[in-house]
Amino acid sequence: MTQVRADPPREIPGGRLLEIACDESGSDGENLTGGNTDVFAHASVRLSVESAAASVREIRNRIRSPAEEYKANHLLREKHRAVLEWLLAPSGPLHGDAHVTLTEKAFFVVDRTVDLLLGDRAEAVALFREGPGVFGDGDWRQFLEVANQLLRVRYDGEPDAPVDEFFRTVDRLRRAHSPAPAAGVLDRIAAARPRADSYRARIQEGPFVLNPVLNPLLPAIVRTATHWSAGGQAVTLVHDRQNMLTPDRIVWIEETARLHGVRLAGLRLVHSRLDPRVQLADFLAGIARKIASDELNGRGDPLLTALLRPYVGPSSVWGDERSWAVLGPADGERTAVSLHL
After folding, report:
1. What is residue 209's predicted lDDT score, i.e. its pLDDT?
2. Measured distance CA(97)–CA(119) in Å, rounded
3. Kindly report the CA angle at 133 between 131 and 135, in degrees rounded to 5?
4. Which of 118, 163, 176, 183: CA 20 to 30 A from 225?
5. Which superkingdom heads the taxonomic lineage of this protein's source (predicted)?
């Protein structure tokens, strides 16, 4: 189990530190196309320990489950619908003091693949939105799977196999569907094989795990710090223990935040059961992941989607246009491009 980082937050000139509690839901490591979930959510709350504890007590009093530890699933049960609506409502305990970064995993794979090979996010969006209709569901699913394998750090087969399989699939799809615009993107990807070879070579040559390209957790934490420090406030993050958050990766998060001008003073890990603020972040992350996934798959609950919307950050990594129209900020603002980690 990851050890708690005991270092005190660094002193940052300019006033008192703001402490934000965080947790995630939907982590499948590097297996983004074949995991258990299609959405990753990272939630954060700005509450005192006392206020958070009172909210957790209120949730327990309303649900009255004998469970020792409550999770988001308790709130998502239909019989507790009223409690869920209360928690998210404008009059509830989180409104104005909580934030969610969403990641649509399939788009994340395409975004990272195109960024590696072409360095053009607009191409990633175009390919993602046109690909399923042009190539068909089966071939599109295969493209996502081989792209996922190309980017994975952990691979037990032949070193060149992920690159070979990816470009075989790309060649087949672009030849079969030319001159569709999506096939044109694949033409440009096909010419970028040297970048893929170089990427896999770097993995083979030595440690390449500080920021695994396919894991959405680390960039989500930086985006969370970006949100809460947007007004110039220095922040420190308190996060639920997570095996991905090793000491070296925490340093990567802190240094990356500084490079982007984010006033992150530090990140420490706690057990969610010992901090009611993290418990609330855990609830919100699980709830947000489920509501967003339902909306993505065409089975969204309009009321719950509307209740979640004020919490969803514009820097979420989301490619599906229809679902983002109701999940994303009402003003349509997007800032993900400006913090492409």
Report:
1. 57
2. 35
3. 60
4. 118
5. Bacteria
